[in-house]
Amino acid sequence: MGNFLNQNWLAETNEGFGIAVKIRKKLEHIKSDFQEIEVYDTVNLGKMLVLDGVIQLTEFDEFGYQEMMAHVPLFSHPDPKKVLVIGGGDGGVLREIAKHDGVESIDICEIDAMVIELSKKYLNSLSCGYDDPRVKVHVADGSEFVKERQQFYDVIIVDSSDPIGPSESLFNETFYRGMRNALAPQGLIASQSESIFLHMSTIKHLLAISSKLFNDSGYGMFQVPTYPTGTIGCCVATLGPDFRNPLRRPDETMLNKLKYYTHEIHKSCFALPNFVLKILQQQDK
Questions:
Q1: Along the 285 residues of the chain, how does pLDDT read in single tens digits?
Q2: Domain identity same for 233 and 156
Q3: 8 Å CB contact between 179 and 200
Q4: Helix 200-213 with 274-284: angle, nearest 10 deg
Q5: β-pairing verdict for 3-6 and 231-238
Q6: Backbone angles phi, psi at 53, to 5 degrees
Q7: Which helix (H) or strand (E) covers residue 138, if one does?
Q8: Are residue 30 and residue 145 in the same domain, yes or no?
Q9: CATH code of 40's domain
Q10: What's the CA gap between 238 and 183, in Å, rounded?
């Protein structure tokens, strides 16, 4: 569970510092077959989902994460038709993918059915993504699921929690090799890849794997205030398209539905601070 400072404040701590959120009410607390799941009504941030004591999202700022995880790979592909989401049980990434009219099928593979159930109960602003008729739900282990779909998907999005517990297998080379084999020619992946301020070892690890298996890869960074350090990012890897310079951009109708993603934000998210570049350059030597 999260660490309560007192009856009104829940804190998530990481590497010696953290974030505290003022709570109005605990809505749910269960232990599934895989993890502790908590849902809170907060004072200023709307509803909040917590897994094993780690904040996964708040209604206040979830849009930045969901939009970037979905639209960066989708707008980088010339014509995405088949999309897979691994994890993402809250439905937010599904909601964003559904804004692309050209997508024909959206599979989601979530290992924990209770995350889906509680999101549908409490987080309708995200779980509305399940309402799209193109969505097909698979309750399964994503690392195994990709082995069943060879050269099938145009885009695979890994909306995972941290690399512990049920998500641990989504951060190794075997899984990334499975994703590569599940991609159609010209396919791309985007996977949740933690924060540059806390998890450079994880980022280096994922980029090293991706550089071995894909034509090109990189790390994009974006802001989510209720994540530790306020930043998080995704590892994007491609079998063809240049994800740093997207081929397409949202039309005016879609742009009016977006809060964070723009064509310019897409390109700029891959411009990293100098200390990160130096660490990654040391890895390349």
A1: 457 667 799 988 877 788 999 999 999 999 999 999 999 999 999 999 999 999 999 999 999 999 999 999 999 999 999 999 999 999 999 999 999 999 999 999 999 999 999 999 999 999 999 999 999 999 999 999 999 899 999 999 999 866 566 667 777 899 999 999 999 999 999 999 989 999 899 999 999 999 999 999 999 999 999 998 999 999 999 999 999 999 899 999 999 999 999 999 999 999 999 999 999 988 665
A2: yes
A3: no
A4: 50
A5: unpaired
A6: 80, 5
A7: strand 135-139
A8: no
A9: 2.30.140.10
A10: 10
Catalytically active residues, by annotation: 159
State which residues form the domain around 255.
62-284
Amino acid at 66: Q
Q: What is the spatial distance between Cα 46 and Cα 58, in angstroms, rounded to a whole number?
A: 6
Q: How many domains does the chain have?
A: 2
DSSP string, 77-116: SSS--EEEEEE-TTSHHHHHHTT-TT--EEEEEES-HHHH
Q: Where are the alpha helices (DSSP H) in the chain?
A: 62-76, 92-97, 113-122, 124-127, 142-145, 173-182, 200-213, 252-255, 263-268, 274-284
Contact 180, 164 (CB under 8 A): no
Name the nearest CA neighbour of 134 among 99, 98, 184, 91: 98
Chain CA centroid to CA 80, Å: 18
